[in-house]
Amino acid sequence: MSELSPTSAEPIAEIAAAIENHSSFVLISHVRPDGDAIGSQIALGFALMAAGKSVRLINEDGLPDNLSFLPGSEKIETPPAEPIEVEVAIALDTATKPRLGENALAAASRAKLWINIDHHISNPSYGDINLIDSTAPATGQILYKLIQSLGLPLPAESRDSIYTAVSTDTGSFQYPSTQAETYEMAADLIRQGLDVGTINSLIYDNHPFRRVELMRALLNTLEISKDGIVAHWELLDQTRQKLQLQPEDSEGLIDIIRGIQGVLLAVFFEELPDGKIRISMRSKDPRLNVCNIATEFGGGGHALAAGIRMAGPIESAKSRLLSAIDRAAHTAGLR
Amino acid sequence: MSELSPTSAEPIAEIAAAIENHSSFVLISHVRPDGDAIGSQIALGFALMAAGKSVRLINEDGLPDNLSFLPGSEKIETPPAEPIEVEVAIALDTATKPRLGENALAAASRAKLWINIDHHISNPSYGDINLIDSTAPATGQILYKLIQSLGLPLPAESRDSIYTAVSTDTGSFQYPSTQAETYEMAADLIRQGLDVGTINSLIYDNHPFRRVELMRALLNTLEISKDGIVAHWELLDQTRQKLQLQPEDSEGLIDIIRGIQGVLLAVFFEELPDGKIRISMRSKDPRLNVCNIATEFGGGGHALAAGIRMAGPIESAKSRLLSAIDRAAHTAGLR
After folding, report:
1. I need a labelling partner for A70 at 20 to 30 A (CA). Which of A130, B18, B103, B221 fits?
2. What is the DSSP annotation of B139-206?
3. How many Å apart are CA B101 and CA B80, to the nearest integer?
4. How do strand A265-271 and strand A88-92 relate by DSSP bridges?
5. Which CATH number fits domain B209-331: 3.30.720.120, 3.40.50.620, 3.40.50.720, 3.10.310.30?
């Protein structure tokens, strides 16, 4: 393992050498992939292909429906049963190696060199070469700069995927992580031919009807505390089955209740097929540290976004969590 | 009336002279103001004040709640009863003079010079000086360039208002009207101190609870045609009264159903206090020209966004409009 500083220019030189000296690459991103994961694979993958390299794009869970509009997404494959004969494996947007998935890791097991490119601050630099920039709002933005630094081609597939990766990971250029450079990158991609109206329409205005049905089902369970600081809603497993929901269908919906005036904490209770309850919490106020609350129940995360898996049934999970939130709100002087 | 070409540099020189030669200004935007209207008033208003001018910011309907977070918004006032003693009136983001509102026009009636700055293509150049750029995605972007061209100061109020004007008029940098320059402008505003995370949280994550209640009420009336190309929902006047809705509460909600896969036409039926039915239509397909459909009922608009006011009751309005849509879909070969 190399011990490079994340801000060092060395990993870029090492990546340049790795690309120069090898001809076959497998690019992998994390399980349950989102726009930054798949977008990063296509972005770097098509740039390498345009430079004449042999490239496979592998994801443990394959391509989610909501990203199948991306040009080049047809190259994303689930892991083959046999290990691939490949020289270099590149992990993209994946904070820990196990998050690449068991089958994807097995498929890439013959690689003799691992490159790890990511923007998660918790990434322990598990590659032989590590390019980690936790100030970047998305791995897609790191790749945009990398492709420029290396002088690689930027085919249309890469251009559109970089935009999608960064747009989805910044909530359409809204999150605090968004930088002046992020907007400048988008401007440059437009000047390079990106059709900004069309791609946004494909990213944001093209959801399956079942997502709207899910929104309605969740809103019909919405409860808000008397003092207005805690809002929560829930999804029963029977609703998931009835609407034939996919994992990506609920993505971002919690923002609807997190965005209510006065709400400091939004909670999503989800009954899983095995009867366990998955809980997602989003806080708007650092005084309500949801990571601390999650830790009480064996969960984890960050101060403003954390998760728990708890035993069911849902009513008892709700009551235990809401009591813990109440204690935390009292301790913080918010109640 | 001057007959300046919209792309001519002359209006900018004339505006420069008007500012140089006068000391008092009233800035007005359209009735039922949105982010680009109010944002444009604050943006130019505070730049002029920072340059030592006397400025009033007037809106027929005053400041909507959802824009009261904007620094400087406390300067927005409803029209005073008596005409203001002012030399120059500046109309912002307002396609026709009557859209400024009767009382606002009366308040500005002593102005001897009218400046008209707008991005609506239908603007008939009703000012003495007209700066119309229909390629700009928002009037806020025209003002950003104008403030630069004139060498006016850009105080924090103007900076934040320009961002808000442009972000809200482009659906957070998503609409086809968004340009490379639009993103470059946002980058520059960040470099000038804009706190991008905070302002977006105030614009997008700070809606009143009643807006979420409205979303739920609308979703519970959602209907989608068997072939999936037409989706519609409705708001009864009693629901508006029960939830104590404000006009801005429904802004943008139609995008939820417009964004459903396969839907080509989204329709919002709204029962008004006088019993009339206000209909908003959004098309995703130029073959379904909603302006043509609206015209059949005395309404109007654009090919992809149009509106109608129809006699009630709501059930008969729905049935008449859905029949017209069915005919249009057949004519277009979509049914």
Report:
1. A130
2. HHHHHHHHHHHHT----HHHHHHHHHHHHHHTTTTTSTT--HHHHHHHHHHHHTT--HHHHHHHHHS-
3. 13
4. unpaired
5. 3.10.310.30
Is the pLDDT score of A2 beyond 60? Answer: no
pLDDT tens for residues A297-307? 999 888 888 99
Please give the Cα distance from A173 to B43 (Å, whole number): 21
**Residue A4: band (very low, low, confident or very high) from pLDDT cuts 50, 70, 90:** very low
Smallest Cβ distance to A259: which of B179, B188, B206?
B206
Say how many Å lie between the first and final Cα of chain B, rounded.
49
**Minimal Cα distance from A219: which residue of B?**
B216
Q: For residue range B310-328, what is the model confidence (pLDDT) as tens digits? A: 999 999 999 999 999 999 9
Residues of chain A with pLDDT > 90, as a percent, come to 90
Classify domain A210-331 at the CATH class level: alpha beta
**DSSP-assigned letter for residue A78:** P
Pairing of strands B113-118, B88-92: parallel
**To probe the interface with B, which of A65, A144, A172, A255 has the most B CB atoms within 10 Å?**
A172
pLDDT at B9: 61
Q: Which CATH code is given to the segment(s) A10-204?
A: 3.90.1640.10
Q: What is the ipTM of this complex?
A: 0.89
**A vs B: CB pairs below 8 A:** 129
Residue with token string 């993958």: A45
Partners of residue A173 in chain B, C-beta under 8 Å: 172-173, 186, 196
